[in-house]
Amino acid sequence: QVQLVESGGGLVQAGGSLRLSCAASRRTFTIYTTGWFRQAPGKEREFVVAIRWSGGSTLYADSVKGRFTISRDIAKNTVYLQMNSLKPEDTAVYYCAAGRAQFGIDQGHNYDTWGQGTQVTVSS
C-alpha cells in the first residue's frame, strides 16, 4: 500500500510563507487525486486543495484561493503546497491524502490513504 509522508510544517508569522511536501512511497496508477486537508483544534477537518495527477487540474477552497498553490512533480511522486500570505486562521494540522476518485475531491471520504499530518502554526 502506498504511504504518504508530509513535511515542511512549522511556525511562521502572519504574512509569511511555508511550503509543504507530500511524498508517496511509490507511484501507483490507482492514485488519481492528491488533496490537502487541515484540522484546527476543536474544529472539523476541512478541505484545502486537491490536484488530479492526470492533467493537473486543481480545486481550491475559497478560503485559500489566491494565497495557496498546489503543484506536483510526477518524477518524484510528490505534491507540494505553497502557502503564502498566511493568516493565524490557517493554523492547523495539515494532512495529505490520496485517492482514486476524480469527482467529489473536496470530500475526505473519497480518499483512502492519509499521511500523518504536519503542524502549521501562524502567529499574529
Structural overview:
This protein has 124 residues and is an all-beta fold. 0% of the residues lie in helices and 48% in strands. The chain is built from no helices and 11 strands. The chain has strands at residues 4-7, 10-13, 18-24, 33-39, 46-52, 58-60, 68-73, 78-83, 92-99, 113-114, 118-123. Strands 2, 4, 5, 6, 9, 10 and 11 form a 7-stranded mixed beta sheet that branches. Strands 1-3-8-7 form a 4-stranded antiparallel beta sheet, with no helix packed on it. β5 (46-52) and β6 (58-60) form a beta hairpin. It is globular, with a radius of gyration of 13 Å.
Task: Chart the SSEs and their pairings.
Blueprint: E1 4-7, E2 10-13, E3 18-24, E4 33-39, E5 46-52, E6 58-60, E7 68-73, E8 78-83, E9 92-99, E10 113-114, E11 118-123
Parallel strand pairs: 2-11
Antiparallel strand pairs: 1-3, 3-8, 4-5, 4-9, 5-6, 7-8, 9-10, 9-11
Q: Number of DSSP strands?
A: 11
The secondary-structure element order is EEEEEEEEEEE
Anisotropy-based shape: globular
Q: Approximately how much beta-strand content do the residues carry?
A: over 45%
Low-confidence stretches: none
Broad structural category: mainly beta
Q: Report on the biggest sheet.
A: 7 strands, mixed
First-to-last CA distance: 40 Å
Radius of gyration: 13 Å
Oligomer: single chain
The pLDDT mean sits at 93
Percent of residues in helical segments?
Answer: under 10%
Per DSSP, the total helix count is 0
